[in-house]
TrEMBL record:
PANTHER family reported for this sequence: TRANSCRIPTIONAL REGULATOR DAUR (PTHR35568)
Protein name (record): Transcriptional regulator
Positions of region (Disordered): 212-252
Domain Transcriptional regulator DauR-like HTH: 148-208
Domain spans labelled YheO-like: 12-120
One protein family per Pfam: HTH_22
InterPro entries found in the cross-reference section: DauR-like (IPR039446), DauR-like_HTH (IPR039445), YheO (IPR013559)
Length: 252
């Protein structure tokens, strides 16, 4: 793997995105992500749909690609909804170097809110009504912390229970799901997830370690950039034994 080669690919794409955005118009945003720095993955951006800027973070979609590592593939023509209600049609194309290593992504986001509204209006006028599929809400932000919090919150909403109401199996399932979606590839994500759930850092590391150990998936989660701060030896509020250690394979 050559960092120089990866840098050259990103540098070559930077002027290209301006042309794409100019061609597709004001409702288009094109973003170059560098997965080597997931907390500040936006290294170039043209247009404004998601409100991000250079130095902004990836979304949970990017985290999912990061978690799949070199097995990741392009995700094309999918719909998401931003926090402020925009309907966005997106395509995410992974960037690989000559060895096949995935190190980034080129994303095209189109704000189709007005098109969607016009389609619904024309359907009503024509007397044709069609059921519209639910569009998942995706958090786009310049702060990776807001993205991590949104992912944790969405999992808890689906469980429809607070952390204290979950049994151990459901707790491990939550941590396993977060891990598979690439959350723990972000620095200090374990500590942030712990704070969001209201548990100790030691407990969070223990649940993550146990979730990885009991995972039934065939692919080992990508932990190359996982958070590694040492947990406290103090007793945890949810009864986890003190002295938990960080998962094997984590790096500073």
């Amino acid at each position: 793997m050559s960092a120089e080669e990866q840098d050259a690919i990103i540098a070559a794409l930077t002027p290209v995105i301006d042309g794409i955005a100019a061609t597709l118009g004001s409702f288009c945003e094109v973003v170059v992500h560098d997965f080597r720095r997931p907390e500040e993955s936006v290294v170039a951006i043209a247009g404004s749909v998601t409100g991000r800027r250079v130095g902004g973070s990836m979304s949970e979609i990017g985290m999912g690609i990061l978690a799949r590592g070199d097995e990741a593939s392009d995700e094309l023509n999918y719909l998401t909804r931003t926090g402020d209600g925009k309907i966005v049609k997106s395509s995410t194309m992974v960037l690989r170097d000559s060895t096949g290593k995935v190190f980034g992504a080129l994303c095209v986001n189109l704000d189709i809110t007005a098109v969607n509204q016009a389609h619904a209006l024309i359907g009503e006028i024509a007397g044709v009504t069609t059921a519209r599929a639910a569009v998942p809400t995706t958090t786009f932000g310049n702060d990776i912390g807001s993205v991590v919090d949104a992912i944790v919150d969405s999992h808890q909403l689906r469980q429809n229970k607070t952390w204290s109401e979950l049994d151990r199996g459901r707790r491990l399932e939550l941590f396993r799901s977060l891990d598979e979606r690439g959350v723990f590839a972000v620095r200090r994500a374990v500590e942030q997830v712990a704070a969001r759930l209201g548990i100790s850092r030691a407990s969070a590391y223990t649940y993550l370690s146990d979730a990885r150990a009991t995972s039934t998936t065939s692919n080992t989660p990508n932990t190359s950039t996982a958070s590694t701060a040492s947990p406290s030896d103090a007793a945890t509020p949810d009864g986890t034994e003190p002295g938990a250690t960080t998962p094997d394979g984590a790096q500073p």
